[in-house]
Amino acid sequence: MTKLPSWHGRFFEDFAVGEIYQHALGRTVTQTDNSWFTLLTQNTAPLHFDHHYAAQTEFGKPLINSTFTLALVTGQSVSDISQNVMANLGWDEVRLPNPLFEGDTVYSRSEVLEVRESASRPHVGIVTVRTTGYNQDGTPVISFRRTVMIYRRGQGPSIPTVQLHPPTG
């Protein structure tokens, strides 16, 4: 049997300006996701959790909480962008060009905009990406620039490995 290595994300040396990563996982957003996240974060805007109220707006139904959208699309990018993050430095230019609704499925992709050395930390580098989230129809629902400090290969915490033993009789 051949043992293949698991994917542990990109390190600083693996990024190049202009690369585009289509993130692997999509996620259908549910009413429960929206209500729980909205209430968990103490967002009292009824547009997110009161169907009667939302029916009276131009959208005619609840909108997904925009900070949930930001968190979800950021999360979708982790395996490609920040699996080996030392620190997030910021989210800039967050734009929500179209609404996201309960039942929509979100997909995302990121483009590498800048890759540079860290002036103060030689064990990491700084990567800036533009990430776009879009719905099942390809309509963009969010975009943002994100800047992260990424460990150089062999410079961050080690990934724990578990020694598996063969089953016994």
From TrEMBL:
CDD domains: FkbR2 (cd03451). One of its GO terms (molecular function) is lyase activity. It comes from the Bacteria. InterPro entries: HotDog_dom_sf, MC_hydratase, MCH/BMMD. PANTHER family: BETA-METHYLMALYL-COA DEHYDRATASE, MONOAMINE OXIDASE-RELATED. This is MaoC family dehydratase. It comes from Cryobacterium tagatosivorans. The lineage of its organism: Bacteria, Bacillati, Actinomycetota, Actinomycetes, Micrococcales.
